[in-house]
Amino acid sequence: MAIFKKNSLKISDKKRTRAAELTLRQSIYPICLVTILFFLWGFSYGLLDTLNKHFQKTLDITRSRSSGLQAAYFGAYPLASLGHANWILRHYGYKPCFIWGLCLYGVGSLVAWPCLLHRSFGGFCAAIFIIGNGLGSLETAANPYITVCGPPRYSEIRINISQAFNGIGTVIAPVLGSYVFFKNTGDNIDSLKNVQWVYLAIACFVFLLAVVFYFSPIPEITDADMAFQAEETHAGTDIKPFIKQYRLFHATFAQFCYTGAQVAIAGAFINYVTETGAANNDSLGAQFLAGAQGAFALGRFVGSGLMKFVRPRYVFLVYMTLCIVFISPSITQRGNTGMSMLYITLFFESIIFPTIVALGMRGLGKYTKRGSGFIVAGVSGGAVVPPILFAVADLRNSTATAMAVPLAFFIAAWSYTLCVNFVPKYREVADKFSTAKVGVEPVGARDEENQVSGGSGSGVLGEEGKDAPTQTELVDAEKRH
Question: Is residue 409 situated within a structural domain?
Fold first, then answer.
């Protein structure tokens, strides 16, 4: 019983802890543990793109119908990020949300087994919907956790490095598909059996990982901690009502448009290369998809390195602009030229999702957990855009022509990129966090600096487990001294 008491899954969001000021060294273990989750949903996402084409062959369904996989997967995200997962995150904390998401992921993987056994596409979509709820729960907690766990000035770098392992997962899944799923596709029963074993292995692994999370001492970051960070950086916008957090809602819109375009391109990639002549069979197409996802993962590592020397918003602007530039030729080009355009597009897609998360959450303070639910809900664009792309592809009998659909959504997402770089109210919040000293300088050094400069004393820390001092109490304390 002592073990379970020690690993309590609930902490008050009104309590200040030391977690808001974790240094780089202190944040390494929790970040590494949570980064495993990024690999998991990268693998699951890559698996989905491969299964999309696989089911077209083995179950003899149209491109439009096969997009039901993406609709079920990403359609679950708003239910998780704005519903059950966000409720758990706000009332219990990050660790319970991680465990909840892993359990849902495991249950969905087990449900997939009988659905595949009976070759039920509708049943498998239901299993994918459960998995989507699990992964949506993990994203609701993991993305903001990586962003706030450690010095605020490095939040974009942290989340992009962690998301790079997501990219590695998306590389491994198509490779697995090319050698396992597309092997002996003439025998549909044996082909689907291979998929069953993959999902059983996933279920075993995620249930084990849930146990590891339960017993791991990862720091819990509360709303009071985030309010402190926002005040310390002088970039807090949480003094306004939540309904007036316009930057957050714009980031959510951009996430919806961008994620929809990204998922549509990846989901249609194998169709694109086989139709345009770059690949002469689905197995080779899956291997090309793995290469494209490798470019995606590489782009995240390169982007993370650039952010160490260049303001993240500049890197964001360049990458988003080049996505638009290189997706455009893929509409008219064919063969290796068209495929090369998609490779380059995926390279520049790499940092967009995590950077929108990091920039969109800046300055939210006590609204951080609630706001993260909205940004992650933007992932539901992945349920909307792919069906539109595949419907256009069926109508025009050309996946290449349908690439105009993600181009349009990229342009819509670009509006947020422009605002972050050229609209003062967006830009100032981003830049203040880039120079924040929280988690970089020792606490005592900042307190001395505040006293010398006659500051409000926002560097004064409440003791762990106690309520954070209010601004009035801090001012009164200064007067007494």
Answer: yes
